[in-house]
Fold each of these.
Amino acid sequence: MRNLVLLPEALVVAGAAFILLAARFAWLSPAARRRLPAAAAVVALVAFALELWVGATLATYFGGALVQDRFALFAKAAALLAAALAIAAADWGAEDSTSLGVAMPLLAAFGVMVIASAADLLTLWAGLELAAAAGVTLVAVRRPDLGLRLLVAGGVASGLLLLGLAFLYATTGNADLAAIRAVMIGTTPTLSLAIPVLLLMSALAMRATLAPFQLAGLSAGLGASPLGAGLVLGLVAAAAATVAIKLAATLVPVPQVVSPYLEVLAAIAMVGGGLAAIAARSPRVRMAYLAAGQVGWVAAGLVTHFRSGLAASLFLLGAFAVAATCGPAVLGRAEGGEATIAGLGAVRPLRAAGLAFALLSLAGAPPLAGFFGELAVAAALAQSGHFVLLALGVLGSVLSLVAVAGTLRLMYIQSPLEEARRGALAALPAVTVLSSLGVAGFCLVVAAYGFLGSPILGLANQGAEALGLR
Amino acid sequence: MAPLAGFVLALSSVRTRRSSANLAMFASVVMLLTTVLVGWGLAKKSTPFQASYQYINLPVAFSGPANFQGFGIDIVLRADHLNVAALIVIELCAIAAIGWHQVMGRSEPGAARFYALVSGLLFAFAGVLVSWDLAELFTFWGMGGAVTYLLLAHRWGSDEAARRARVALALPFITDLSLLCGIAWLYARYGTNSLDALVPILHTNPGWTIRSLVVAAVLLTIGVGGRLALWPLQSWITRTATTAPPAASAMAQATWSVVGIVVLLRLMPVVFASNAQTLKVLVYGFAISAVVAGLLAVIAGEPRRAVALLGSSISAVGGAVVIHGYQSSTYTFAIAGVACMLAAAPARAAMFLAVSTISSAMRTDELSEMGDAWGRMRTSSVTLAGSGLVLALSALGALAFAVTTRSYLGVALGEAVLLVAVGAVRVFMGTSTGALRRRRAFEPDRVREASSGALGWPYLLVVAGAGLLVASLIRGWLDFIDIHKHSSPAVSTFLLWLAVALVGIAAAGFAFARNKDGALRASALAGSWLEARAADSAAVAERFAVGPATDLTRRIDVWLAAGEGAIGRFADAAGRLATAGSRAPAVPVIIVLTVVLALVVALLAPGVLR
Amino acid sequence: MILLQHIALASPSPTPASVPGANIFTSPLLMSLTIWLPVAVSLFVAAMPNPRGRYDQLMKQIAFFTNLGLVFVLFVAYNQFQAFLPTMQYEEKVPWLQAIGVTYHLGVDGPGMVMLMLSGLVGIASVLASLGIRERVRSYVCLLLLVQASVNGAIVARDMFVLILFWSATAVPLALLILGWGGPRRGSATWRLLGYWGLGTAALVVGTMALYAATGGSSFDMDVLLKASLTPRIQLAVGLVMIVAGATRLPLFPLHGWVRDVLSEAPPGVAVVVAGATTRLGAFLLLRTLIGALPAAAHLLSPLLAALAALTVIYAGLAAIRTVDVRHAGAYLAMIPGGVTVLGLAALSPLGIAGSVLSLFAGGVAAALVVGACATLAERAQSRSLLVLGGLAPRMPSLSWLLIIASLAVLGVPILATFPAELMTFFGAFKNQPIGAFAVAVGLALAAVAFALLLRRVLFGAPNPDAPGVSDASLGESWYLGLLAGALIWVGVFPGGPKIPGTDTPVFDPGLVNVMAAGISDMASPYVGPTPPAGQ
């Protein structure tokens, strides 16, 4: 059993590698290439199932570089599920390269898995870079310029990240998270500790497209193909958030250096995200800002440097990863603007439902995944007495809801464009069995997340506990 | 129950005019017979008959003062001599009105609705009269009020009627609210609605104060006064007098006066429990309103308004007598006031119906355009005269029994009686004497007496009124309707008050006999002057009270809208700012932002820099 | 039918028999049924095929019979309700998110039962009022059912988390209903609705979280949150926030900005639900949290509540006098029952609270009736302007009668259910809030003037020759308005239920007043006046 624990990782990497090689050396017939997404989705699902089955065993590998604990289990499961659903639900007609489009989500998911079970700073960094690289690749396929921009910004981010990690190593003389934590207990926070930590956090904020650092990531996500956008806004952000959770757990002994900064970021992101979502018009832009707002909620959970807070963050992160990764994929090529999704409910009922679920969940509307996650975070905020942040967050959610109502109106109440006037810009996403299955599965997950919340939140709780929090 | 059944049946099933009329008539007659039966049963008994049905019974608390632990309204039916007498009078008025309406109201719309409402009104009044629980009393009172409004606003098609009927909803509703507030005020302090339970503890219940009793007394009296249509609360009957169906108006005036006076007597223990000044103020308030109403009646240009005002004046006299009479320490003469109203009610109904007959025949509402009814419509004219006489004399007994002639009150009420006499005669002379002039599209020779079916009913009312008037002068009648012994005053007192009325009659008669037009012109002049003043004051009220108040709401809406707009614009602007970020040169901005934010927060964060 | 069998077979609920023949028909998941049956049906409707709108009628019928079935079940539950039993009844409790102490906890006490009956009644009325809907019937029916489900959920929730869930779930479908099927100014109406209700939801969340934190952050269950003894300072803070939450829903004076547009732009069916059921949740929340759980705050804030109530009623009266739009008038007048309800709460006396609970029902129905009557009248007369309409009474007799009944109901005239409610409210209020009570009475007088103007302009008077064609209410419209009017009259005549004369045995209806009494007494126990010293 213990040897099976890394099987999901192996499956994902092998799948991704095979797809890339097959594409490079043209091993596959066109017919087989058409089946690629289905195959990849199945691989990811199998990995997900395996993770749930064998992931429960606690173990460490490579001399403690990788640990399998409840936290790892939760994060890996979330990432795999998100990747599987995104690949299945994607509108493959709108993707530029099937093989890359299939492989990159798997790689990104692998990056998150690496982070999830990382035990030291270096592995964390490696996982994050891997996920980010997957995102950059997929963006660059359609818009090289944006890819470059994202690469540069990412370079800055990873530079800052390395700087911070190096400082952390220098201050504590340790790269191992648990050890760092042990050292931190008893140390008093100083400026020399705070500044690098804050640089670290801002680097993660960049990766997580958390306001006000969303600039590069957001624009890149908006220009990319649907799946690319989903990757940058969803999985990569989730990866960064996972790193943030791990680091926050490590730095719990000295909350003064992290919490105020996260508070500021969370407040800006939650309110700003809502406001921007109202101002935004095109569905994908609106979705991007809603996602930014929800990442703010995740950060707000980290402000409460104790277990239930981090557990809530993790719980919300799962919901976020699924919704934010699949949202743009479900939207597919109908990304042009308001006109494109007008009356989508009539012409593409299932996709419209999926889009509605994604938007509502990201806005934190009841009774979907995001609502439960955000209320869990809210409860944690209340317990730790951060009522101002709580109020701001609820305000942000209300704004997001108002924004979503506009899009829902477009989809369900406006009458669709006539086919004659529907140009290439306003093309409708194709409907395949796979995509229908994927969207249906996505809707199911988002709807059931809260009602099955007891085990999920319980697992998240154990995950936070595994990080050594009380 | 009979009228209720009639009401329901008429509303639900009956549609044709005749059948609904017969149904209503049948219901009323059955009711009358049962009432008479009850009265006969009670005649020999001095203890009232009582039965009760539980309407609400609700335990609201299990601790605290016992009388506040539960809340209950019991429909207590309590019939004593007074109730029965009052009910019989009301039913007589109703029956006569229905009978009159059957013939004269043929052209009225919505017959079924009309007769159903009449039955409803009777039911409500029966409820008010027999109820001994204040909440229950108000229940039926309010029901009667609602039905009355619907009756007075009966002519749905006519704009004039609709406009004038507004006041018939608004003004009485306000006074009814005052009654409700009074009852609620009492309950809040004594925790009971039942008069039997309330009266003994008025001065013993913990936490009672004179002030609270004064407030209650004033609220209750205003509430009753509104339905008695005392000046200045009379406009709901005067303004609708010419536009409502005459039968409805007559019924509303007559029946409400009876119900109101009986309820006032019933509430007197509470009013009396407040202090002497309050009672004095109330009595003089009634006296003043009696005089003013009489004055208005004398100068009113429309005969029906004049009749309504005469009635209002008599009601005020009766009310004053009730309040004043209740104060005499040994035995109460308050009942004399009630007796006076019992006599006046049929008279005013009859007078109103007779005047309506005449004015519908002469197709005008202007007294100055009428005349010669004596020659052309003898029966109606005689009815008018008789009813006027009864009305003028109705206060006789009350004053003789209850009021000493040598007191300010006596003078004031005497003046009121004088004015009523003058007014009554004026209406009679104005309509019946002098020449009936030719007008455009009106040929005097066409004026005929109404068909015999309509004439009998007012006549019957006059007879009933006269009988009750005579009765109100007899001690035994007073002894009968409240179970007390009363001593009768000296004959000279009767004669004195009779003289007062006769003086008025003679004066008016003389003036009109000399120069009808002059007399009318004089009153018209005064009337028009008063109209102008009233219009001015209304305009002032509109300008300085109503206008600003309603305008304020408009402003509030504007402010709210402005505020919402501002918030919306702010949100939009902020949102655009946030989205604009994505167009900024990403990398340098991010680097600067990172460093600045990191430094600032690190420096400001509590606990990092001590 | 299956539903009935299921319920009949289900194990008996803990509530013992109250009336003869009780416990024939009980269910351990009655409350869940009231929530999830409409949801399930709406999912079914959303999924069922509907080629070229062939089954539009069927969908409406499905919605109608769903509501009918629910009301039947509710009525039986109401009949078997243990009056005078202070505890919750028909309780369901399932652990949900243990990590943060959320339980799926449902149950009703007297006021809850009253609200459920109101919701069921208004639900049927709203479906009947929606028979005229022609386009996008499927979406309309689904959204309407979702609204009803969320309202029921908010009523029966016994866990603040669940309450927030359903409370906030009401807004989105309503917004879509108004956006999709509303009148010309539906846009601003929707944004106002979302804005104000969003503010209220935010307030509710913050207040709940404050309670949660103050009680140790172990549970969201009302039995924990609302039974804890908190310091007056916390109570005051939470109470203020809850007042904001309630006032945005009810609505009360300064936070009423949405009500005019929403009630006048929404289609009649939706307007009826908003005015009748969803808005009552505001007062219900105040009753549950402020009055029921925060006595100290209630004592401090009752003058504020009374002032808000008075301002609301007076403002509504004046605004209704001023307006020249019949639907605006209806919207303003529908604010009045809410003011009376809050006056009863502010009275802080057992009787006042009982009165306000009764007026939750009566006022809700009256508000629904007046809004619905005005909306239907405006549709039937093809105009909303009071300057155009006139003399309609002879041409639409049944609508005229219904509008008259609605007016009298809002004013609280006897034999209508609002009368006992108003009576109890005033009787209760005159002890602690005499000024507020007088002010509300003044407001009612203004409302009477407004009604007099409205009736005179619209119904009575000479018809306007230039006005567009007029037709009387259709069968469905007269039915839904008649249903509401009938409920008002029934409860007004038999608040204690029709009894066999001479006995105390209720026939067929245990009486709304008796049912609602359950749970009020202990809710009101902190406000009982001091027992007078013996010997007096």
Amino acid sequence: MSIKKNISYLLIAASSLLAACNPDVLDRPELTKVNDNTFWKNETDLRLYANDFYVNYFVGYNSSFGTAYTPLRGYIFADDFTTAGTQGGFESVVPNSRGASTATPTMLTSYSGPSWNFYWVRKANVMLDRMSKKMQGTIPAEQYSHWEGVGRLFRGFEYSRLVSVFGDVPYFDAEVDPSNEESMYRERTPRGEVMDKVYDDFKFALANIRTDDGVGYVNRYIAAAVISNWMLFEGSWQHYHGLDAARSKKYLELAVEASQLVMDSGKWSFGSDFKSLFASENLASNPEVLLFRSYVSPLLTHAIGSYSNGTEGQAAAANLNLLKSFICSDGKVWQNSEVPNAKNFGIRNLTLTRDPRFEATFLDTVNVPAATLAYAHKFASRSALTFMYGGTYPPEWGSSTNTSDAPIYRLAEVVLNWIEAKQILAENHGGSAVTQADLDKSVNAIRNRPLDAVATAKGLQKTAPLMLTSLPEDPDRDADVSPLMWEIRRERRMEFVFEHTRLNDIRRWKKLQYMNFQKGEYSAGPWIDARRELATQLTASYVSRLRVMKEDGTVITYDGTNADQMVGYYVVMNYANRVAFTDRVYLSPIGRNEIQAYKERGYNLTQNPGWGE
Amino acid sequence: MRKLLCLFVTLGLTANVYGATPPDKTGPASGVEALDVIRGKVTGSDGPIPGATVTVVGTNTATVTDAGGNYSIEAPQGAVLRFSSVGYTTKEVTVTSATALNVILEDDDNTLNEVVVVGYGTQKKGNLTGAVSSISVKENLESRPIADVGRAIQGSTPGLTITIPSGEVGSDPTIRIRGALSSVQGNSTPLILLDNVEIPSIQYVNPDDVESITVLKDAASASIYGAKAAFGVILITTKTGGTKDKISVNYSNNFSFQNPFKEYKMGRVNALKYSIDALDRVGGTAYGAFYRVNHESYQRAVEWDKKYGSTIGPNDPTVYGRDWYVDPGSPTVKLGVRTYDPYDYMIREWAPSQTHNMSLNGSVGKTRYTATFGLLNQSGMLKPGDSDKFKRYNGALRLSNDINRYLTIRAGAMFTQRNKVMPYATSSTTADPWLYMYRWSSLYPMGYDENGNPIRSPWSENMAANEASMRHNYINMNAGTTINITGNWKVDVDYTFTNEDYSIARNGTRFTAANSWVAGKPRNDADGKPVYVNSDGQVVSSETAGAIRAYDLSYDAYTANGTNPDHIYLRAENSYRHTVNALTTYDWRINPANEFKFIAGLNRVTTDGKYNWTQRTNLLDITNPQFDLAVGDITGSGGVYWDAQLGYFGRINYVHKDRYLLEGNLRYDGSSKFPADLRWRWFKSFSAGWIASEESFMEWTKPVLSHLKLRGSWGVIGNQTVPSDLYVSNMTASQILWFVNNNRVNAVGSPSLTVPNVTWEDLETLDFGVDARFLQNRLGITFDWFRKTTKNMFAPVEGTTWTIGGTAPLGNYGRLTTTGFEVAVDFNHRFTNGLGINLRANLDDAKSVFNDYTSSRLMGSNYDGKVYGEIWGYETDRLYQYSDFELGADGKPILVDLTADMTRYYTSGGGKAYQLKDPNGVYQPRFQNSTGAFFFGPGDVKFVDRNGDGEIDNGDGTIDNPGDMKVIGNFTPRYNYGFRIGADYKGFDFSAFFQGVGQRSVWGEGFLAIPGWHVSDGAMPAAIVDDYWTPENQDAFYPAAFNNAGTANVNNMQVQSRYLLDMSYLRAKNITLGYSIPKNVLQKAHINTLRVYVSLENFFTWDKLNGLPIDPEEVAGYSMFNTTNYNSGRTGVGTPTFKSASLGLQLNF
């Protein structure tokens, strides 16, 4: 064995090791992600970035069994609905933390909005920041201003939501540096100041977003619908909560302006029947719908149709107070309507005598899966109801495999925002009085929707228009609400029932006292004759459980022998009013830990009124 | 710098060639020395010793003895021959004139002379200075029904904590060295090296293939492995090379049968009673998801149980009228009467498993070879579907050849296939069959309905499911050489290529069953006439008293086309790794009193991987799921990843007078995970030992104290186990659930928040140890105290609040200090009558404390001084009784408005409470937070007002003002221990091995741990529903019934001392009885050894869970399918842990 061989072995080993030594081997950057430094190049990039907002803001029917921000399943905490047993209460304890930073839509049911979550504020601020730093002058001005408008619209949207839940919130118009305590631990900015910033964002969005950016993408009209909602919310909140009259006026005027933009565009009309808005496989051609969420099986499906299919339980169901609020087809309230049987609260009769939206919303028979027996089929097609009682539902109307499209913004919402904002302005801020023409463009235009074949076959009539000269006289009207305003509010309640509006409406009107279900009509459903409609419950197992309420409020309990007396308003099983609450529940408490974290670093995060404990 | 270093190492390898002096004529390695052939026989107390090693000291010349103990070796006169063999004292004999040299070796019970594998080399156990444990392969790996090395070595070694989170076959155990947590980010898992190359899972190693296992616990011993060794190292070496010309064949097998380790007892009728009690309290009318219970049906269930409870079993179909009925007043409502135990349907009892291993060893000329084969076929615990299985195949071949005196080459290949198969009923990992098994109440039927249709349930879905598989193929190819430049200077270069293929196949289906999730269908006869039944389910005329309208479950294909799991899914991942280890070792023995050893080398690892998956929905043929036979949407994605580490290292060992030991390590490490300017870092470590017993002044202790060594070590290792883009603000791109014209839209997320200067995390370990042996080495004690400090810890930037609008970025912040101790004791003795006994015991503990991380004092933060794992909670006083309250005329407590005299909470918020009798009584309104319907009354939990302020609350939520909260436990396993008793006598051997955790607490979540967790879903353990407070059982352990509706920490179930789960346990891990057939019997059959054994694994467990169906070892939310939120983090809902009984044999011929 020679040394030479040894040398050659070692040379081979050494040279391969020299190759192994190349330190460039350590240059291995992440390959599957986009880098913030090199992204922001063109409009495509902006669109990709902005698309992320959609699923958060335009939840529609959510996905799978998700309930956040969904009609019927998410927005069930309001004075319209009663559950069996004790009514769900407002929050009674200050939570340890209310914070979140998730990008998934989550909802605080009793405030109808998000947690203490600034994810979307940052998302929008980053977009605006990168645009101004990297894209100014490099992309056409039209593109720039459109996307700046989109970014500001979404920032305004998020702050509107945060304000609606928390009132004062720290306002940021730039990305927060996580190493900068000074900026991070910002005190809560007064509500009005935040909303002034939102107002500016909205104004900009309204002036700069394209009028058309392709189907399914935000355009100026969709922005206007967003703005109309939130400016009405804040304008009316500022007014009814006695905050700042000037701001109230300013916001309401923008609500009117934004609504007007949509209404005057002539692009949308009330050409669709009511049910088709909520139970159609495709809303693309619906003339009333500005924006919808499209559901495509199996990638994106929902369960909202299923919970409206006649069989799935409706634990929170329409109470008598809501049933009574529906206007009769002659345009009058039930107490003084001239429609025959107007005072008959049997469910079938209600579908025949009330505004046709009632029939399009509720089954015409009592249905026990609904806690009050008044079952809402608003989000299921008429064909879905044929599978009731043991049928096998097709995926479109069973389980979480529904594919009906969800309307996000529709003309009815815009016009009702518009008329209400105008009326508040007229009553309180010297705005011009609402005219009959205004009503005809809004409330009456809605009432003039076509009826579908089933409704026509049942002989339903469109509801008579609301006339300034002969406003309904509602003996139940709150004294502090004008007759016209009362009718505008009623119209919202009928139009949007089970949708997103009711809790926020009574919050902004400062009418949360409606949630105190003292009155018997909150415990009850429609009028029933148990022997005819609920004979199956006249059995031993329903003794002392089945109850009806007479017109005068006396409650009859079934004792096994008094079947013939079981005629009256159906009383929800084991009904009990919710635990008492105070005005503090208008706003969500700030989490204890969040306040403490500020305090520990010498900053101050105030608590909302009444939550100080 | 690194270039210089690189050059140095490389030149170091070559320079010695150019600089190599021609071999010294007088040197022992001289090629021209006149050599004699020395022959002889090596014998021991049992006769000739085959396989003993004979070495010419100071050279690489070596040989081994043959079957008859004979050897022959070339050596010059005057050379020293070293004879060594495991189990015998090594002996050195100088070659004198004679060429025949017979040697008798003494039995050795001195473990100090054992050679232990350490980082890039070996070390005599007695000379170790770092915290190193070697694990006995024979004691822990042989003749046990265990699937992998990890499960085998649980409890064997102090400081090594192995947890088996569930009974899922094919899953990896979690392994930690010294403390449950070493870094709050990344993982804290040790580096597992198989023959110096990282192995991605310990499951790839065939236990039968293992030669040695060493655990490197402190920085000083592990640091030579650098970048990935921060959390300790487990070194596994494999058996290499036979030494005999004759082929030696080993065969072993094991047949085992697995059963749940304890009775998983759920409540049946009592659970319904609990529901009814909760119902009355909440004011509802019925509970239940698909089958409800109300007052009336509960009475029927009680009667059913009396009438049929002992006669109707799981195989009897579910009959309408008898077992369930429809509420005629609410025909969509099904009411249950019969109670079921899902255990009967879901769990496979005595599931069979088997292992077979075979190895061939031998040599042909100068080539040594080993070939091994292994097979494991293990059944899982899921009964329906019959495909819950885990299979593993191992094959390995290792060759080495001494080309000449200077050069040895070696090569090996190893292949492992692991395949876990299971019924594919759902893709969900947050609610899999095991969660559903214990979600619904006992009214929820499984089995068949009276029409012979399976009833929709986890049972029916698993039965109908096709298979899913998770298959890994692992290939390891290595080649290496050792160049012996001189007798004491060698160079080792090894290159290894490993490739891991991982595929997940999910073959879906659509389910058809009697649909228990929807309303029943009225039953009509052939003429379309309504059918009526009585309460025994018999068809009767409608006029019969008690006749009710009959219903059937709707027999539906209830999986909509294209919805989960109607799809076929395939995911393929391939990752490969190149590992180069090159080092040079130089032994410099100046004189017997001064010995040096130098090592310098480099270590380079690159990893590249990619994956992609495709799914297609809507199968055409559900019995044959194929991509081209599916017609729905195709979705897919994929990605790549890569990283690299490069390190240069050096080590110096110095031994002075066999008693003063010193070691120093230095390593220069680079990682691709950090920005270029922060990539490289020096890490150093030192250790020293003093063998006091060698000192002359200790001579007097010799009769008792055979060996005493004091040692200490200090060192730093860098950790880089974090994502590679921490310092870069990146954005993820993906498809979102927004469709435009039926097309899915893509979106880009917000850029991550980053800290740009992220660099290495430093783990510094200080260790002091004592090794002592007594009574002629028969009794040994090892003790270590250590402090591991994690500096520049990867952690979210401190002190952010939610306004940053994202996840706080990771940087290097704060410090985590883990202190602990380890003790191990062993005792071996053989009595003169031949009875041998050995005892081993070990105990360790560690706790980790946060420092300098945050200025926050909030309980939930990692505040200064926080012990990792601590659980804050309230102290439970007792359950309230009637006597605590003012009672009204009806004998019930009186609900009153809260006033400022009673509490400072909710006096303005409409709060109410039951009035306490004691005017100074403490009200607990802060916990009455189930939207107000819950009021503390008789049977509810009374908490201790620890701070005496008249309120039960958490103060301001900080540790300085925690109100009435305190630390009530810690969820990390503390005081881990194990002990083993072994004995052998006349061919019989017996061993019993116990393992336990002395302290661990868990605040449970979910049905199995929390009373009233979700009454409307309904599942409840018998332990709870048999002992909750009612007016008739006021002495109960659990509080009065209430429905907490799936919400944690509400009402009675605040985190508190009374219901904190005590997860400490002791397990009889293994009990084995074996018998070795006497050699004289075997000789006729040409068999060397044959041993048969029976072995019980996990057979007895002692826990303190009061009969809750929870494994004390389980880790909620962790499984091989989902490591963070498995089954929504609920305690105990996973594959049941099993025990097994087995028998097997070991054969060598």
